[in-house]
Amino acid sequence: MSRRAASLLLASTLFASVLVGCSTDRGPAERVDQPAPQATTAAPAASAPAPAIPAGSAPEDAFAVGVRQLKLNRDGDRPLPVTIWYPAAGRAGVEPAASAEGADGKFPVVMFSHGLGGRPADYAALLTRWAAAGFVVAAPTFPHTSRGEGDPNVLDVLNQPADVSYALTRVLALDGRDGDPLRGRLATERVAAAGHSAGGVTTIGLFTAGRDERLGAGIVFAGTALGVGTAFAGATAPQLFVHGEADEVVQYAAGKAVYDKVPWPKAMLSLPDGDHGRALLRDGEGAPLRVVADTTIEFLRWTLYGDAAAKERIPTAATRDDLAVLDNRL
Fold first, then answer.
1. Which of 5, 128, 156, 311 has its CA 20 to 30 A from that of 53?
2. Structural domain tally of the chain?
3. If you average pLDDT over each of 4-13, 251-260, 285-294, which comes out highest?
4. Residue 308 located in a structural domain
5. Which helix (H) or strand (E) segment is 258 a member of?
6. 189 by DSSP, 3-state: which?
7. Which pLDDT score, from 0 to 100, does residue 99 have?
8. What b/e string do you get for 49-78 counting C-beta neighbours within 10 Å, with b at 16 or more?
9. Is the overall model pTM greater than 0.85, yes or no?
10. CATH assignment of the domain containing 302
């Protein structure tokens, strides 16, 4: 498929997602049929090397959560404000505190990409759980695909992998900045990327055409490879795909086709009654969010902390309450 043809497909697919709720839009959704990528043959289930992360243990206790904003601009014309949630000093279980003192320790970094028409705050119910579990979560607001920012341009999704790489460089630099709340608190060699819908496209792109070799793992929520391809490249980087089988925007089969092409250790969490993610984003206390949050946290504990026990807990977290099915090739 030519880049132009892929771009046109991407445009039609992602434009539809504005209408049916790529982030938190309300209202009934009309199913959008999306052509699946042409190559759907499953990658061989060969034995792959383990993540290049030294063995270790993830924190067992939950942290308080701090939140801050980082104002960035790539190339002078791509404003990229970044919301950062991070483990903070203080009592766990309370609302995130603005610019709170960071907790003691060195914490892995997760770059999160929002969906079309979304903003990082739409995902706070999930991302604050990651931060409380011991991860620094940095989420850019993209200049042309976020709600209320700049001139909307669906095809700008193809520029977002480079945005994330730029933002990652700036976030990691905070570890050495005098006086910064995160100085000395970032595990700069332990980094993952995650994203939802158009942010899933962005995340896949970071492991394919726009491969960022600093990334050691990825999580793709309701994503597709249109425009970024499935030529996964570089060092082994385990992947976790999360997709609702009743997704009305990005067909489950399209996400599964991308998953099948991943050559590394991988797993796919399928929710038989799951839609494109609106219920996950709205329902901060719902059972589906608990399953997704617990499964993704165990995956991140394994891939970024090197916690072998967390890897063994992934199937249990995924099948809690019989809400999801896990294809486990980790």
1. 128
2. 1
3. 251-260
4. yes
5. helix 252-261
6. strand
7. 92
8. ebbebeeeebbeeebbbbbbebebebeeeb
9. yes
10. 3.40.50.1820
